Amino acid sequence: MTDIDVLVVGAGFAGLYQLHRLRDLGLRTRVIDAASDVGGTWYWNRYPGARCDVESMSYSYSFSPELEQDWTWTEKYPAQPEILAYLQHVADRFDLRRDITFDTSVTAASWADDGWRITTDAGERITSRWLIWATGCLSVPKDPQIDGLDDFGGRVLSTARWPHEGVDVTGERVAVVGTGSSGIQVTPVLAADAAELTVFQRTPSYSFPAFNRPLDADEIAERKATYPQWRDAQRASGFGVPVALPTRSALEVDPAERAATYRERWDSGVLTAVTSAYTDIRTNLEANETAAEFVRERIRETVTDPAVAETLSPRSYPLGTRRPCLDTGFYEAFNADHVHLVDARETPIQRATADGLRTRDGVTEVDTIVLATGFDAVTGALLAVDPVGRDGERLSEHWADGARSYLGLAVAGFPNMFTVTGPSSPNVLSNMVVSIEQHVDWITDAIARCEADGVATMEVEAAAEEAWVTQTAAMVDQTLYPRADSWYLGSNIPGKPRVHLAWVGGIAAYRDVCDAVAADDYRGFTRQRADPHSPSLRTPRPVSA
Ligand code: NA7
Questions:
Q1: Domains of the chain: which residue ranges?
Q2: Which of 166, 250, 400, 410 is an S-S bond match for 278, by CB 3.0 to 4.6 Å?
Q3: Of the candidates 398, 432, 438, which has an alpha carbon nearest to the alpha carbon of residue 415?
Q4: What are the DSSP E strand ranges found in 18-124?
């Protein structure tokens, strides 16, 4: 039995920074990760074309000015190998690897009054006073729900588990299933080598051109000279990506001016630019439609076959209510004779056969099937372990009607447990690195305060969690998000309760709430000293969002 102070699960952006911060407190900290190296999302998602859709100089840590100065990004949008190299550099630079156990999964965790009892698939048993989940929001690939994949005679690949040695599809017939970010990124790259490429699209995405390019020396120098101001701007923005803030409704400007505004923002190649052009695109259907139609016009402009352009055009949900994409040559790929589109809404994949994928129109024969079919978002990694909290309650029981948390950071009935970018925090509706740093700083400060105050257990009050759930759901109801079936709402996983998994109020407002909770003696938490006779440090008033 190993006895430590803090166990952190996950060695991606969140786990690495969390380890670094906890070391400063002098706490015995261990990180466990199923992968063979650091990187998290960027360790696993190695498919050709994998690229971040937040700019490199924004999608990076701010905690170390020296790191900011020493590391030089090469492209506007960093490709997976460059992000992985960055995280490997961070692990080496801060000597993090000595406290990380790789190739190991946490299989069970249960609360035992004085701390957590954790078991790994290596058979190790660990006792830890604190447990922090840094398991990522998109880390458990979803079951593609395609029967017969075992019967298929060719290769089946998943974008989320791409072989490290790479894959050569030169001259092959390839099927890509799925047109979220992963499918949209991998399609044009595979199309360059494949003899035939068929994309099975069930729901079209709204995708914006990335206009990716190498960074030039001047812009790198300028950003390095002004990083503190840039980081402040990131934190003050809605998504952690500074864009000019809207002041007017899309419906109060004339169509020509509106089109010019959308065009200017489209040309910026920033994921959130068009959706942030007016105040009401996320809240008013008519306003939203003006932006959605602008994107559809661009699709029609790009794709030469009008029928293909129409199939690629989203019409069943408002812009921004499912995750938009940033692409390099996705729509253009369909202008090549060897690239085909199957409308898998109209003609669903019935099953895989020995030769390919069958729909009611017949079998599309292929050599390789690429599954870009998504993830069990935000809650998947936590429920895969299904920790057992106070009184033997499992997390899956607590979340039977949908994920519940306080601030997205902690769960009632699960003492001394924190979730980095957990459900109902800004998580997937933000630049993850900005949110991760904020969460890790908040968690570290909370633990430091407990250590200083002699507090042994810190636990969310049920009333505070309930108030948070109610308030965050009410905020979602004021938006257009509920109008789409999306993984934001868990709709991609059969049986998953329909609860919006992200805070929709923007990262600056969210940070203010978290800071106010901490400043008010961790309002909404009960903090109990080790001596059972000493009074608990309790601040019972629920927080307001
Ligand atoms: P997404 O965005 O969840 O996309 C998965 C896609 O796979 C989506 O288009 C699904 O269609 C499709 N899908 C899933 N199962 C099937 C079957 N059986 N048949 C046809 N199509 C299917 O995951 P990504 O990996 O692309 O992106 C995840 C995030 O990574 C992204 O948003 C960025 O944050 C980075 P559906 O929508 O269910 O109709």
A1: 2-38+96-140+376-529
A2: 250
A3: 398
A4: 29-32, 100-101, 106-111, 116-120
462: three-class secondary structure by DSSP: helix
Please choose from 158, 202, 316 the residue to mutate so as to test ligand 1's pocket, defined by most ligand atoms within 8 A of CB.
202
Ligand 1 centroid to Cα of residue 153, in Å, is 24
The DSSP secondary structure of 275-337, one letter per residue, reads TTSSTTTTT-HHHHHHHHHHHHHHHHHH-SSHHHHHHHS--SS-TTSS--EEESSHHHHTTST
pLDDT tens by residue, 28-77: 999 999 999 999 999 999 999 999 999 999 999 999 999 999 999 999 99
Span from the CA of 199 to the centroid of ligand 1 (angstroms): 12
What's the mean pLDDT in 224-240?
95
The pair of structure tokens assigned to 324 is 């938009």
CB within 8 Å of 514: residues ≥ 6 apart: 407, 409, 438, 442
Position in ligand 1 atom list of the atom nearest CA 323: 32
What is the C-alpha to C-alpha distance for residues 371 and 516, in angstroms, rounded to an integer? 44
pLDDT in tens, 460-478: 999 999 999 999 999 999 9
List all residues whose CB is within 6 A of at least one atom of ligand 1.
138, 144-146, 177-183, 200, 202-203, 323, 344, 349, 372-375, 487, 492
Residues in the chain: 545
Closest C-alpha residue for ligand 1 atom 29? 181
d(CA 89, CA 359): 47
> 180 C-alpha to center of ligand 1: Å?
4
**111 alpha carbon – ligand 1 mean position (Å):** 35
The structure tokens listed for 96 are 């993090």
The number of CA neighbours under 13 Å toward the Cβ of 515 is 7
Which of 120, 16, 26 has the alpha carbon at shortest distance from 447? 26
CATH class of 2-38+96-140+376-529: alpha beta
- 365 Cα to the center of ligand 1, angstroms: 22
